[in-house]
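Reference record
================
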Amino acid sequence: MGLWWQAARKVAKAKIEAVEARTTFRIEDVPNYRAELEKEAGKGKLGDEAWVATRFGKVNTAVQEDMEKRLQAFGDEGVLTFLSALDGAGEDAVVQPLFSSSAALARDLMDRRLFRMTDQVGAGDVSPKHVHERYGNPFERARLEAEAQEFAGLGTEPKVLLWIPSHEMRLKLAEVLVQQEAGIAPFVNYERSRSRRGSDIYDAHERLWAAYIFVHRDVEPAQEKMVAAFLGSRMGIRWRRHSYFGGRPDQWPLRLAVAKVFRKSFKAPVEKELNRREGQLANLAARGPKGVRTFDELCREVEASGRVP
Protein backbone atom coordinates (compact mmCIF):
# COMPACT_ATOMS: atom_id res chain seq x y z
CA MET A 1 0.00 0.00 0.00
CA GLY A 2 2.88 2.35 0.74
CA LEU A 3 4.39 1.77 -2.71
CA TRP A 4 1.00 2.40 -4.32
CA TRP A 5 0.45 5.67 -2.44
CA GLN A 6 3.97 6.81 -3.22
CA ALA A 7 3.56 6.05 -6.93
CA ALA A 8 0.08 7.59 -7.07
CA ARG A 9 1.42 10.86 -5.69
CA LYS A 10 3.79 11.11 -8.64
CA VAL A 11 1.11 10.72 -11.34
CA ALA A 12 -1.84 12.33 -9.55
CA LYS A 13 -0.13 14.77 -7.20
CA ALA A 14 -3.08 17.16 -6.82
CA LYS A 15 -5.55 14.34 -6.09
CA ILE A 16 -3.36 12.69 -3.48
CA GLU A 17 -2.47 15.96 -1.78
CA ALA A 18 -6.16 16.89 -1.64
CA VAL A 19 -6.88 13.66 0.24
CA GLU A 20 -3.93 14.19 2.58
CA ALA A 21 -5.09 17.74 3.28
CA ARG A 22 -8.38 16.54 4.76
CA THR A 23 -8.73 17.43 8.43
CA THR A 24 -9.87 13.85 9.06
CA PHE A 25 -7.03 12.18 7.12
CA ARG A 26 -5.84 9.07 8.95
CA ILE A 27 -3.10 6.73 7.86
CA GLU A 28 -5.15 3.64 8.78
CA ASP A 29 -7.83 4.76 6.32
CA VAL A 30 -5.50 4.71 3.30
CA PRO A 31 -7.21 1.56 1.89
CA ASN A 32 -10.50 3.49 1.95
CA TYR A 33 -8.92 6.52 0.28
CA ARG A 34 -7.45 4.32 -2.43
CA ALA A 35 -10.86 2.74 -3.05
CA GLU A 36 -12.43 6.21 -3.35
CA LEU A 37 -9.81 7.38 -5.84
CA GLU A 38 -10.08 4.24 -7.96
CA LYS A 39 -13.87 4.41 -8.00
CA GLU A 40 -13.70 8.04 -9.09
CA ALA A 41 -11.28 7.03 -11.86
CA GLY A 42 -13.80 4.50 -13.17
CA LYS A 43 -12.78 1.18 -11.65
CA GLY A 44 -15.74 -1.18 -11.76
CA LYS A 45 -17.41 0.76 -14.57
CA LEU A 46 -14.76 0.79 -17.25
CA GLY A 47 -13.60 -2.27 -19.14
CA ASP A 48 -10.26 -3.82 -18.20
CA GLU A 49 -8.32 -2.12 -21.00
CA ALA A 50 -9.92 1.28 -20.35
CA TRP A 51 -9.24 1.00 -16.62
CA VAL A 52 -5.57 0.08 -17.12
CA ALA A 53 -5.21 3.19 -19.29
CA THR A 54 -6.33 5.54 -16.48
CA ARG A 55 -3.80 7.21 -14.19
CA PHE A 56 -4.55 4.95 -11.25
CA GLY A 57 -4.74 1.91 -13.51
CA LYS A 58 -1.22 2.72 -14.66
CA VAL A 59 -0.15 3.07 -11.02
CA ASN A 60 -1.45 -0.42 -10.29
CA THR A 61 0.43 -1.88 -13.24
CA ALA A 62 3.68 -0.07 -12.41
CA VAL A 63 3.62 -1.08 -8.73
CA GLN A 64 2.77 -4.69 -9.57
CA GLU A 65 5.60 -4.92 -12.10
CA ASP A 66 8.01 -3.32 -9.62
CA MET A 67 7.08 -5.81 -6.90
CA GLU A 68 7.39 -8.75 -9.30
CA LYS A 69 10.90 -7.66 -10.26
CA ARG A 70 11.88 -7.29 -6.60
CA LEU A 71 10.46 -10.69 -5.65
CA GLN A 72 12.07 -12.44 -8.60
CA ALA A 73 15.46 -11.02 -7.60
CA PHE A 74 15.28 -12.41 -4.04
CA GLY A 75 14.84 -15.76 -2.42
CA ASP A 76 12.41 -16.13 0.50
CA GLU A 77 14.98 -14.90 3.01
CA GLY A 78 15.92 -12.02 0.74
CA VAL A 79 12.33 -10.85 0.49
CA LEU A 80 12.02 -10.75 4.27
CA THR A 81 15.32 -8.88 4.58
CA PHE A 82 14.15 -6.35 2.00
CA LEU A 83 10.81 -5.85 3.75
CA SER A 84 12.35 -5.58 7.22
CA ALA A 85 14.51 -2.69 5.99
CA LEU A 86 11.54 -0.60 4.82
CA ASP A 87 11.55 1.43 8.04
CA GLY A 88 13.74 4.03 6.38
CA ALA A 89 12.30 3.77 2.88
CA GLY A 90 9.45 6.27 3.18
CA GLU A 91 9.95 9.68 1.65
CA ASP A 92 7.59 11.52 3.99
CA ALA A 93 5.46 11.25 7.12
CA VAL A 94 2.47 9.82 5.23
CA VAL A 95 4.13 6.93 3.43
CA GLN A 96 6.59 6.01 6.17
CA PRO A 97 4.04 4.49 8.62
CA LEU A 98 2.81 2.18 5.84
CA PHE A 99 6.36 0.97 5.16
CA SER A 100 7.03 0.64 8.89
CA SER A 101 4.04 -1.67 9.29
CA SER A 102 5.36 -3.96 6.54
CA ALA A 103 8.81 -3.91 8.13
CA ALA A 104 7.37 -4.85 11.53
CA LEU A 105 5.51 -7.81 10.03
CA ALA A 106 8.64 -9.03 8.25
CA ARG A 107 10.77 -8.80 11.42
CA ASP A 108 8.13 -10.66 13.41
CA LEU A 109 8.17 -13.45 10.82
CA MET A 110 11.97 -13.63 10.80
CA ASP A 111 12.07 -13.76 14.60
CA ARG A 112 9.20 -16.30 14.70
CA ARG A 113 6.88 -13.94 16.55
CA LEU A 114 4.01 -15.47 14.67
CA PHE A 115 0.37 -14.47 14.69
CA ARG A 116 -2.03 -16.99 16.16
CA MET A 117 -5.32 -18.14 14.71
CA THR A 118 -8.21 -16.84 16.77
CA ASP A 119 -11.16 -17.93 14.66
CA GLN A 120 -12.21 -19.55 11.42
CA VAL A 121 -15.17 -20.33 9.21
CA GLY A 122 -15.55 -23.15 6.68
CA ALA A 123 -17.41 -24.03 3.52
CA GLY A 124 -20.17 -25.58 5.60
CA ASP A 125 -20.83 -22.24 7.31
CA VAL A 126 -20.72 -19.73 4.44
CA SER A 127 -20.51 -19.54 0.65
CA PRO A 128 -16.76 -19.55 -0.13
CA LYS A 129 -17.40 -17.89 -3.49
CA HIS A 130 -19.45 -15.07 -1.96
CA VAL A 131 -16.96 -14.43 0.86
CA HIS A 132 -13.98 -14.37 -1.50
CA GLU A 133 -15.68 -12.16 -4.08
CA ARG A 134 -16.81 -9.72 -1.40
CA TYR A 135 -13.77 -9.65 0.88
CA GLY A 136 -10.93 -11.46 -0.94
CA ASN A 137 -9.54 -8.31 -2.51
CA PRO A 138 -6.33 -7.44 -0.58
CA PHE A 139 -7.34 -3.81 -0.18
CA GLU A 140 -10.79 -4.72 1.13
CA ARG A 141 -9.09 -7.04 3.62
CA ALA A 142 -6.65 -4.28 4.62
CA ARG A 143 -9.57 -1.93 5.26
CA LEU A 144 -11.36 -4.49 7.43
CA GLU A 145 -8.18 -5.29 9.35
CA ALA A 146 -7.50 -1.61 10.06
CA GLU A 147 -11.07 -0.96 11.18
CA ALA A 148 -11.10 -4.06 13.39
CA GLN A 149 -7.83 -2.94 15.02
CA GLU A 150 -9.23 0.49 15.70
CA PHE A 151 -12.46 -0.96 17.12
CA ALA A 152 -10.45 -3.14 19.52
CA GLY A 153 -8.06 -0.32 20.45
CA LEU A 154 -4.98 -2.06 19.04
CA GLY A 155 -3.30 0.95 17.44
CA THR A 156 -2.01 1.14 13.89
CA GLU A 157 0.79 -1.45 13.94
CA PRO A 158 -0.44 -4.67 12.24
CA LYS A 159 -2.17 -6.81 14.87
CA VAL A 160 -5.07 -8.33 12.89
CA LEU A 161 -4.83 -10.37 9.69
CA LEU A 162 -7.55 -11.95 7.57
CA TRP A 163 -6.86 -14.98 5.39
CA ILE A 164 -9.57 -15.37 2.75
CA PRO A 165 -8.39 -17.76 0.03
CA SER A 166 -10.01 -18.17 -3.36
CA HIS A 167 -12.92 -20.58 -3.41
CA GLU A 168 -11.09 -22.41 -6.22
CA MET A 169 -7.68 -22.69 -4.58
CA ARG A 170 -8.00 -26.36 -3.57
CA LEU A 171 -9.60 -27.59 -6.81
CA LYS A 172 -6.45 -27.94 -8.94
CA LEU A 173 -6.37 -31.74 -8.75
CA ALA A 174 -10.03 -31.98 -9.71
CA GLU A 175 -9.57 -29.64 -12.67
CA VAL A 176 -6.30 -30.99 -14.10
CA LEU A 177 -6.71 -31.94 -17.77
CA VAL A 178 -6.50 -35.65 -18.66
CA GLN A 179 -6.53 -37.55 -21.97
CA GLN A 180 -9.52 -39.80 -22.55
CA GLU A 181 -11.11 -41.58 -25.49
CA ALA A 182 -13.27 -38.59 -26.45
CA GLY A 183 -10.42 -36.10 -26.08
CA ILE A 184 -9.09 -33.93 -23.28
CA ALA A 185 -11.30 -33.09 -20.29
CA PRO A 186 -10.95 -32.03 -16.63
CA PHE A 187 -10.22 -34.95 -14.31
CA VAL A 188 -13.48 -34.36 -12.43
CA ASN A 189 -15.52 -34.75 -15.64
CA TYR A 190 -13.58 -37.85 -16.65
CA GLU A 191 -14.26 -39.51 -13.31
CA ARG A 192 -17.92 -38.46 -13.31
CA SER A 193 -18.44 -40.27 -16.60
CA ARG A 194 -17.08 -43.48 -15.08
CA SER A 195 -18.33 -43.31 -11.48
CA ARG A 196 -19.24 -40.86 -8.74
CA ARG A 197 -15.61 -40.46 -7.77
CA GLY A 198 -15.30 -37.21 -9.73
CA SER A 199 -18.07 -35.57 -7.75
CA ASP A 200 -16.73 -36.98 -4.50
CA ILE A 201 -13.23 -35.62 -5.18
CA TYR A 202 -14.53 -32.21 -6.25
CA ASP A 203 -16.88 -31.92 -3.26
CA ALA A 204 -14.17 -33.05 -0.83
CA HIS A 205 -11.77 -30.40 -2.14
CA GLU A 206 -14.44 -27.71 -1.90
CA ARG A 207 -15.02 -28.61 1.75
CA LEU A 208 -11.35 -27.95 2.54
CA TRP A 209 -11.87 -24.21 2.04
CA ALA A 210 -11.67 -22.07 5.18
CA ALA A 211 -11.18 -18.40 6.07
CA TYR A 212 -9.30 -17.33 9.20
CA ILE A 213 -8.75 -14.44 11.60
CA PHE A 214 -5.20 -14.17 12.95
CA VAL A 215 -4.08 -11.82 15.71
CA HIS A 216 -0.67 -10.80 17.03
CA ARG A 217 0.49 -12.82 20.01
CA ASP A 218 0.31 -9.82 22.36
CA VAL A 219 -3.42 -9.30 21.67
CA GLU A 220 -5.36 -10.08 24.83
CA PRO A 221 -8.37 -12.44 24.94
CA ALA A 222 -10.79 -9.56 25.57
CA GLN A 223 -9.45 -7.78 22.49
CA GLU A 224 -9.77 -10.97 20.43
CA LYS A 225 -13.48 -10.95 21.24
CA MET A 226 -13.77 -7.34 20.07
CA VAL A 227 -12.04 -8.19 16.80
CA ALA A 228 -14.25 -11.23 16.17
CA ALA A 229 -17.40 -9.29 17.08
CA PHE A 230 -16.51 -6.45 14.73
CA LEU A 231 -15.57 -8.69 11.79
CA GLY A 232 -18.61 -10.88 12.35
CA SER A 233 -20.85 -7.83 12.20
CA ARG A 234 -19.17 -6.17 9.22
CA MET A 235 -18.85 -9.35 7.16
CA GLY A 236 -22.08 -11.03 8.24
CA ILE A 237 -20.11 -14.11 9.30
CA ARG A 238 -20.81 -16.20 12.39
CA TRP A 239 -17.22 -17.12 13.24
CA ARG A 240 -17.08 -20.56 14.83
CA ARG A 241 -15.21 -19.96 18.10
CA HIS A 242 -17.33 -16.93 18.92
CA SER A 243 -20.66 -18.32 17.74
CA TYR A 244 -21.85 -18.11 21.35
CA PHE A 245 -22.20 -14.36 20.75
CA GLY A 246 -25.53 -15.23 19.15
CA GLY A 247 -27.24 -16.14 15.93
CA ARG A 248 -27.09 -12.62 14.48
CA PRO A 249 -23.52 -11.41 13.83
CA ASP A 250 -24.82 -7.90 13.14
CA GLN A 251 -25.62 -7.66 16.87
CA TRP A 252 -22.33 -9.07 18.14
CA PRO A 253 -20.61 -5.76 19.03
CA LEU A 254 -23.67 -4.55 20.92
CA ARG A 255 -24.12 -7.86 22.73
CA LEU A 256 -20.45 -7.87 23.72
CA ALA A 257 -20.74 -4.30 25.03
CA VAL A 258 -23.88 -5.17 27.01
CA ALA A 259 -22.12 -8.20 28.52
CA LYS A 260 -19.19 -6.03 29.64
CA VAL A 261 -21.11 -2.97 30.89
CA PHE A 262 -23.77 -4.88 32.82
CA ARG A 263 -21.43 -7.77 33.72
CA LYS A 264 -23.67 -10.36 32.13
CA SER A 265 -22.75 -13.72 30.71
CA PHE A 266 -23.97 -14.63 27.26
CA LYS A 267 -27.18 -16.36 26.26
CA ALA A 268 -30.05 -15.75 28.70
CA PRO A 269 -28.60 -12.89 30.84
CA VAL A 270 -27.56 -10.82 27.81
CA GLU A 271 -30.85 -11.51 26.05
CA LYS A 272 -32.74 -10.39 29.14
CA GLU A 273 -30.75 -7.17 29.39
CA LEU A 274 -31.18 -6.45 25.68
CA ASN A 275 -34.91 -7.00 25.91
CA ARG A 276 -35.21 -4.90 29.06
CA ARG A 277 -33.43 -1.97 27.42
CA GLU A 278 -34.75 -2.50 23.92
CA GLY A 279 -35.94 1.09 23.62
CA GLN A 280 -32.71 2.70 24.84
CA LEU A 281 -30.50 0.42 22.72
CA ALA A 282 -32.59 0.49 19.55
CA ASN A 283 -30.63 3.37 18.05
CA LEU A 284 -27.30 1.69 18.74
CA ALA A 285 -28.52 -1.59 17.26
CA ALA A 286 -29.72 0.17 14.11
CA ARG A 287 -26.40 1.97 13.59
CA GLY A 288 -24.42 -1.25 13.67
CA PRO A 289 -20.60 -1.37 13.75
CA LYS A 290 -20.28 1.66 11.46
CA GLY A 291 -21.97 3.86 14.04
CA VAL A 292 -19.01 3.88 16.44
CA ARG A 293 -15.29 3.63 15.77
CA THR A 294 -14.20 1.85 18.97
CA PHE A 295 -15.51 -0.70 21.42
CA ASP A 296 -14.86 1.69 24.31
CA GLU A 297 -17.07 4.28 22.62
CA LEU A 298 -19.80 1.68 22.16
CA CYS A 299 -19.55 0.70 25.85
CA ARG A 300 -19.89 4.34 26.93
CA GLU A 301 -23.08 4.66 24.90
CA VAL A 302 -24.45 1.42 26.31
CA GLU A 303 -23.55 2.60 29.82
CA ALA A 304 -25.36 5.86 29.18
CA SER A 305 -28.46 3.92 28.17
CA GLY A 306 -28.27 2.10 31.50
CA ARG A 307 -28.88 5.36 33.37
CA VAL A 308 -32.35 5.52 31.85
CA PRO A 309 -34.78 3.66 34.12
Remarks:
- The longest strand covers residues 116-122.
- The radius of gyration is 23 Å.
